[in-house]
Amino acid sequence: MPAPWQEVLKKIDDYRWEIPKSYKAGMLVPGLIFASESMLNHIWQDQVFQQVANVAFLPGIVDHSLAMPDIHWGYGFPIGGVAATRVKDGVISPGGVGFDINCGVRLLRTNLTEEEVRPKIEPLVAELYANVPSGLGSEGKIRVSEKELNEVLIKGSRWALEKGFGEAEDIVATEEAGCLKGANPDKISSKAKKRGIPQLGTLGSGNHFLEVEVVDEIYDHDVAKAMGISDVGQVLILIHTGSRGFGHQVCTDYVGLLGEAVKRYGISLPDRQLACAPVNSAEGQDYLQAMACAANYAWTNRQCITHWVRESLVKVLGKSRRELGLEQIYDVCHNIAKIEEYTVDGKKQKLCVHRKGATRAFPAGYPDVPDIYRDIGQPVLIPGDMGRCSYIAVGTETAMKESFGSTCHGAGRVQSRAAARRSLRGADVARALRAKGITVKAGSMSSLAEEASEAYKDVTEVVEVTHKAGISRKVARAIPMGVIKG
Amino acid sequence: MEKEFEVVDHTADVVIKAYGDSLNQAFANAAKALFSLITELDNVDEVVYRDIELIAPDQESLLVQWLNELIYLFDTENIIFKRFDISQLGSTQLKARSYGEKVDSARHKLKTGVKAATYHMLKVDKTNGCQVQVLFDI
Questions:
Q1: Is the dihedral of CA B12, A46, A72, A59 positive or negative?
Q2: ipTM field
Q3: Residues of A in contact with B65 (CB under 8 A)
Q4: Domain that holds residue A304
Q5: pLDDT (tens digit per residue) in A247-269
Q6: Is B14 in Cβ contact with A79 (below 8 Å)?
């Protein structure tokens, strides 16, 4: 019997599948899913097609409503969804960014080898856990006033630098140099500020983590070298977190406000969580200015955490910062909306690119790629689950042509958190990881079960699709050695 | 006792269904479902209360705002609520007093962080008893 999705999808090639406009009345453009055939069975069960189709209703959407191979069922937008809308007459949707605005990943390199770190991994994980506030309800070590918070929102990473948390080189190696322009704290509710103040400099909980990992494969030595990755066995540090309660409240506030705007502008949507307003309307601009604040909060958050990670390594390894070579490779955001220019229908157009669980993937030569990576392309950081591996890739020209300079952002869930909890116990997960040589410290045992490998797609399968489809090119792979979970 | 709420599987997030003879009760049970995701409510005492008054454009929005208000109070004041007395619930307004206590890490094991209540799959149904459905981003 043919798989049910075969009646719906039009195969473009082995890694591209189109959802025709006829799938659902009201779609303004077709959908396009980057996936392998074997992934489609799960994607089908997950009602993701519906969500990809729903996004195609957004006024001003161009080309396709896109889905990356790590796509899974979200709310409003699917997670792993990309949609570009015309700035001149299209909309912006806070749901297309998500609650964790500028959730993202930062990768640090070291001069350390696995042999040097493995004997000290237990104390290193313990020190990182003690030094980086994490877990549900945790408060940061930084105390800011509302006035200082406003500076954080405007300056982003630079604020952290001015306070001594980091180096100028970190900012160069951060998307948007760690500061999205146009941030306006006047567009932030007092509630968001109240949630944001105590949580600055915290990892959070859920799928956020801090990982000590070791390079186990290099696919492109020249490009890896340009990123400071020279050998298999080299130790890297990966940080995954976002804008915490601050971003959640900004999204909550604006989904509510734009839900009303939808009525005023006479927009009809299949899902209220897709609430939106014209990019050029007062409501749309207000959201963009508030979103930029949350993006800058998130970069400051990751910058502060980076500082404590460095402190922890210096302390446990007993070497100086310089000896450790603790430099930032890159920092990407994977929940964001950006105004970018693309050629669509033969015309250069200003577009609002929503990346909801998708990573920017600009190729070599683009002005937005920092000088240090201008010849190789923007680094793309793709974390997997804590038991498998994570990938480092680079952006490509194909991404610019086909996916609005975007690629996947991670593994993507296959199992619900409840199902994972039912089938696995946190203690067993920790034991299984330990058997694989992975030391893990988590705020709660149930979150450990929820985040187990079994609950995720294999990130390797996801990255293979983006690599073979050409929307990003893999450079290296790293496997975890120590993990801190909130 | 009739079932107060149930948690339905969703790949990335959590969907809850809450029931009640009245909508007030269904809204209260939805709030109870929310805090049961965060921690075991058996260990929570009724020590403090907070009053919430809301106006929203429609009843579905009222449900989302009600739950988001409670998430906000948890996030900023660390209060786990376990009992909800909804004294007024119209089509556009809600008035409630919620009872609970501040997180005591010695007694309360926190499980899951909830980012927000969403409008996706949102349902307020009064046809056959009262039933509401909400998807939480976690």
A1: negative
A2: 0.94
A3: 256
A4: 4-414+456-485
A5: 999 999 999 999 999 999 999 99
A6: no
